[in-house]
Amino acid sequence: MADAAIAVRPPRRPRPGRQAWAHRLFVAPSVLTLLVLGVYPLLFIVAAAFTDSSLGNPFREWVGTATFETVLADGDAIAALWRTVAYAVAVSAASLVLGVVTAVALAGAVRSGAIVRTLLLLPLITPPVIVGTLWKLVYNPGGGLLAVVLGLFGVPAASVAPLSSTTWALPAIAVADVWEWTPLVAILVFAALVSQDPEPIEAARLDGAHGVRLFRHITLPSIAGVVASAFFIRLVLAFKVFDLIFTMTSGGPGQATTTASYLIYQAALREFDVGKASVITLLLAVVVTVATVPVAIAARRLQRNHEH
């Protein structure tokens, strides 16, 4: 009997203390990564913003809010922040519209869809520096693609130089940016289209809904959460634009294409003023938060409404 009792004895449960330590051990790499890549840089930027800091000698002297006051009184810095907001919203909206249209066209293409989807990946896998160089060649007035095409309509090649124009330089960069990132929106929306429930669409078609009416009342509400999420991702990417500006215009002509990210680069790596760069970084973080939080909230609500 004793042997039988020993045989059916339940296995020992691990002690609560061991479970806690095991949990901490598995979570530790993630916490360490967050501290190294997130918290430490943030603390460094905040400390540099309130001190007199250079690239080689940070935290030399406490200056309080003096650097903030200097940056906020700088017309070029404020203009760069507003320019960044306008640019980000414009290219994100353009990418969203073109991406949704492309996704709908891909969803309707049965045979050629796979080939087109593969071609759409090319701008995404191309490094931004290469994209900037490519479009700089397109805009080249001395034999670029744009000059050649407009020359067929009698437009002088010498007059086609958008990157040298204070009016057209930023829109020219925006075109390259939209070309590069629209495929990302298209792929995300396409994935939502092919995974939606076909029954409501078939029922709507039986009731006579087709084309734009079907997309507006049936398809779009079912993928609205994904569309809003794609816009959120595109907006964040647009706020970070730097490579295209650095490659195509270097912030010029004048300050026409100087965005906040390029202004941070100028302050930190050209003027060696880390304090000023940190202040602009914090101001940009506030602007990005104000612009993206409503979009994130809307995306979450739309997704929840679709699930329920």
Automatic annotation (TrEMBL):
Keyword annotations from UniProtKB, A to Z: Membrane, Transmembrane, Transmembrane helix, Transport
Primary residence: membrane
Membrane topology of the entry: Multi-pass membrane protein
Superkingdom of the organism of origin: Bacteria
ABC transmembrane type-1 domain mapped to chain residues: 81-295
Gene3D superfamilies: MetI-like
GO BP terms in the entry: transmembrane transport
InterPro entries: MetI-like, MetI-like_sf, Sugar_ABC_transporter
An example Gene Ontology CC term for this record: plasma membrane
Pfam family, one: BPD_transp_1
Residues passing through the membrane, by range: 21-50, 85-107, 119-138, 144-163, 214-237, 277-299
Localization of this protein: Cell membrane; Membrane
Classification via PANTHER family: GLUCOSE IMPORT SYSTEM PERMEASE PROTEIN GLCT, TREHALOSE TRANSPORT SYSTEM PERMEASE PROTEIN SUGA
Assigned protein family: Belongs to the binding-protein-dependent transport system permease family.
Protein name, as recorded: Sugar ABC transporter permease
Provenance organism: Microbacterium betulae
Top-level taxonomy: Bacteria, Bacillati, Actinomycetota, Actinomycetes, Micrococcales
